[in-house]
Amino acid sequence: MFGYLEGKLVGLSPMQTYLDVHGVGYELQITLHTYDVIKGKETCRLYTHLQIREDAWVLYGFATEKERSAFQKLLSVSGVGAATSRILLSSLSAEELHAIVWNGDSKALEKVKGIGAKTAQRIILELKGKLPQETYAEFNTAPHNTDEIDALNALLGLGIGKTLAESAVKKAKEQAGDKEITVEEWIKSALKNL
């Protein structure tokens, strides 16, 4: 329903915030990681997830799209609700959760308050197939390469293998030289190099 909300921070606590968006105050439940990112700011953008229950509509806010995505994927695990997902993402960053799932490290999840052995194993089992494997570590060294990373992720999303996709993106980079190109141009060029 809402992709994100951007506005003035009216009230902030480690668990929730009120965001004034053109005179409308939204109450958003947040994680500790989001709290750390937005505390001290006057305005911010929060990526949202709306959960509709019988007794309430609850809006969750996240500092990054990656954190929101991790929250939504956690909700898809049977027996894991919004409260557990928030606790997990308050204890671990989205990146840490991703690494734990891919490494199958259920012991690391068990260290989070309220997560037992069975729940930790279920999270790993159910999320391992839903989270894309981190493949762009080598591309992550330059701060200006987000289009390159997006192109690589798009190729992976199309079902192209990691090695082949990385090779195609590298060739596209060589062909582009110093010229700045859009994500779409990255993808088209990479697809021609397959």
Automatic annotation (TrEMBL):
SUPFAM superfamilies per UniProt: DNA helicase RuvA subunit, C-terminal domain, Nucleic acid-binding proteins, RuvA domain 2-like
Entry GO MF terms: ATP binding; four-way junction DNA binding; four-way junction helicase activity
A single GO BP: DNA recombination
Residues covered by the Helix-hairpin-helix DNA-binding motif class domain: 72-91, 107-126
Record key words, sorted: ATP-binding, Cytoplasm, DNA damage, DNA recombination, DNA repair, DNA-binding, Helicase, Hydrolase, Nucleotide-binding
Pfam (any one): HHH_5
Domain of life, per lineage: Bacteria
Compartment(s): Cytoplasm
Entry-linked CDD domains: UBA_RuvA_C
One cellular-component annotation, GO: cytoplasm
Stretch list, region Domain III: 144-194
Family: Belongs to the RuvA family.
NCBIfam families per UniProt: ruvA
The protein's assembly and partners: Homotetramer. Forms an RuvA(8)-RuvB(12)-Holliday junction (HJ) complex. HJ DNA is sandwiched between 2 RuvA tetramers; dsDNA enters through RuvA and exits via RuvB. An RuvB hexamer assembles on each DNA strand where it exits the tetramer. Each RuvB hexamer is contacted by two RuvA subunits (via domain III) on 2 adjacent RuvB subunits; this complex drives branch migration. In the full resolvosome a probable DNA-RuvA(4)-RuvB(12)-RuvC(2) complex forms which resolves the HJ.
Domain free text: Has three domains with a flexible linker between the domains II and III and assumes an 'L' shape. Domain III is highly mobile and contacts RuvB.
Function summary: The RuvA-RuvB-RuvC complex processes Holliday junction (HJ) DNA during genetic recombination and DNA repair, while the RuvA-RuvB complex plays an important role in the rescue of blocked DNA replication forks via replication fork reversal (RFR). RuvA specifically binds to HJ cruciform DNA, conferring on it an open structure. The RuvB hexamer acts as an ATP-dependent pump, pulling dsDNA into and through the RuvAB complex. HJ branch migration allows RuvC to scan DNA until it finds its consensus sequence, where it cleaves and resolves the cruciform DNA.
Name of the molecule in the record: Holliday junction branch migration complex subunit RuvA
Lineage: Bacteria, Pseudomonadati, Bacteroidota, Chitinophagia, Chitinophagales
Recorded name of the encoding gene: ruvA
